[in-house]
Amino acid sequence: MKALVCVKRVIDYNVKPRVKSDGTGVDLANVKMSMNPFDEIAVEEAIRLKEKGVVTEIVAVSVGPAKAQETLRTALAMGADRAVLVQVDDGVDVEPLAVAKIIKGVVGEEAPGLIITGKQAIDDDSNQVGQMLAALLGRPQGTFANEVTVEGDSVVVKREIDGGLETVKLALPAVVTTDLRLNEPRYASLPNIMKAKSKPLATKSPADYGVDIAPRLKTLKVAEPAVRSAGIKVADVDALVAKVKELGIA
Amino acid sequence: MKTLVWVEHDNASVKDATLSVVTAAAQLGEVHLLVAGSGCAAVAEAAKGIAGVGKVHLADDAAYANALAENVAPLIAGLMADHDAFLAPATTTGKNIAPRVAALLDVAQISDILSVEGPKTFTRPIYAGNAIATVESTDAKLVITVRGTAFAKADATGGAGSVEAVAAGADSGLSSFVGSEIAKSERPELTSAKVIVSGGRALKDADTFQATIFPLADKLGAAVGASRAAVDAGYVPNDYQVGQTGKIVAPEVYVAVGISGAIQHLAGMKDSKTIIAINKDEDAPIFQVADLGLVADLFNAVPELTGKL
C-alpha cells in the first residue's frame, strides 16, 4: 500500500511571530522556517508503517513556494521515497479548501491507500485540510490520531477527544490526521540528508490539477492581541494567600 | 440570516459548549439547532428551552449515535439548503465535523472565531494566538467553529423553540465506532471551570503531580490542567493539556505551577482573567503574563499555600 503524507513549511514553532506594523500580516522575512510539527509526526508514522511492512512506498507532498522544497527534502531525509511540490508564488497563502482540492488531484494520480496529514498547521491554526480532503474524496477520516493500526482493508484509529480517547475503524483508503502523541519523529541523519538530495522531487502547479487558489476569505486586518498589563511579584506564600483571598476564590 | 447550530451532547444532555455557540449565532440572525444522535429526544427537549432558539431539528438514528463525521456531515450539508450559516463549537467534535461540511458545500471554513464583526466578518487567532486576523467571507454560506471562551453562554432555559424531526440519511458504511475511554473526574470540566490549577514538567512524576496539584485544586474547587511537558512525561492523561493543541481555557483564575510559559502553552490560557504563577525561575516567560507571581520552590510553596487557604 502506498502512503501519501502532506507537509507544510511554516514558521519555526520556537519563533515568536511579529505582526507587521501595517496590519497586513505576520512578518516572515528572515524568520526561521521549518516543517510543521504535526507533519513531522505524519511522516514518522508513514515510515513506521513502512518499517512494519504495511506501507510499500511513501510520497510526500507540499503546496507552497519554491522554498517548500527544503521541507520536502527533510521528509525525504527522514525516509519518504518521493516528493511532489505543488508550487505557488512566494507570499501566496493557499487556503485549506484549495490545498485539499490540490491534494485530491495528487491522490488521483498516486492512488494511495492511506493519506496522513498533521491535525493543524501552527501558522493558520485552521485544522481543516484533512477533513476537507476526506470529504472531497468521499473517504473516511481519522482525525487527531493517537494510535494507528492497519488491519487488512481497514485502519483502526485511536483518537484524542475532549474527554479522553475514542477508537474508530475506517475503510481504506482513509485520511488520518496526527495528534502530538502519535509518535516521536526521528531526526534525519547526515548520510540520509545527503541521500535525500538524489531522491525524486516533481514540481507541479495548482493549474495541473485544475484548482483555482483564489482566496475565499479576505483578510481585512491582522493585529497584535491585547497586551496584558504587567503583574506583580509577591514576596512569599502569605502574601499570595492574601491576594488569592482578595480574588474571592478561597 | 438563518443559522444552524450543532448541539454538542452525549445523547442525554446538552453540553455547555453549545450555549456559547448560540450566543455567537444569535449575533448573525435566527438560531436553529441540530440535535443529531441516537435516542436523544430528551436532548432536543432541553435544547428547545435554550434562550433565543427557534427551531430544533432532531435527527434521531443509530447512524448518528457517535457523531461520526462521515454520517453527520452529509446530514448537515443537506440542512444547509435552508440555512445560511453552520456554527459548531471548536471542540474536538466540532473541529472534526465542520470542515467536512464546508468541503461538501464548497465553502471555506472559519475556525475558532473570537468575535462577530459583521454578517460575514469575524476575528480569529492565528500563530498560536500571537496575532488576531479579521476575515471576511466571500462565500454564499458560512461554516464556522466558535471559541467557547470568547462568547458568553446563552441561558439554558427560557427559550420557546419547537422540535421538528429530520429524516435520517443512510449510514455511510465508511467508518464505525469501536469504543471510547473517557476519563472520569469529579472535578469541574476544564473548559468551563472558573478556577484552574495547572502543573508542568517541574512536578517530577505522576505521584508528585497528584500529591501537589490535586489538593490545591480541591481547596479552590478548581479543574486540573497541565502543560504538554507534563502530559508527555505521563503525569496526567492528554485531555488535561492546555495550549495551542490542547484545550483553550479562560477561567477567572489560572494557577500555573512549575510551568515555564512556552508560546504554545500561553496560547491556551492567556485570556484568563487572573493568572497566578509559581515558579522557581524568576526569568520564566510565564511571569510576563502573570498578574501575580511567586518565585519559589513549588514543593515548599504549594503545600504551604494549600495549607493556608
Task: Describe the structure in your own words.
Helix content of chain A is about 25%, strand content about 30%. With about 250 residues, chain A is an alpha/beta fold. Chain A has a single domain, classed as Rossmann fold. Chain A has helices spanning about 35-50, 70-80, 95-110, 130-135, 190-195, 235-245; strands spanning about 1-5, 10, 35, 55-65, 80-85, 115-120, 140-150, 155-160, 165-170, 175-180, 200-205, 215-225, 230-235. Chain A contains six helices and 13 strands. In chain A, about 50% of the residues are buried. Chain B has about 300 residues and is an alpha/beta fold. A seven-stranded parallel beta sheet of chain B has the order 5-9-4-1-2-3-10, sandwiched between helices. In chain B, helix 3 (about 70-80) packs across helix 4 and helix 5 packs parallel to helix 8 (about 300-309). Chain B contains eight helices and 16 strands. The model of chain B has no long low-confidence stretch (mean pLDDT about 95). The interface between A and B is large, with 81 and 92 residues. Strand 9 (about 165-170) of chain A pairs antiparallel with strand 11 (about 175-180) of chain B, so a sheet runs across the interface.
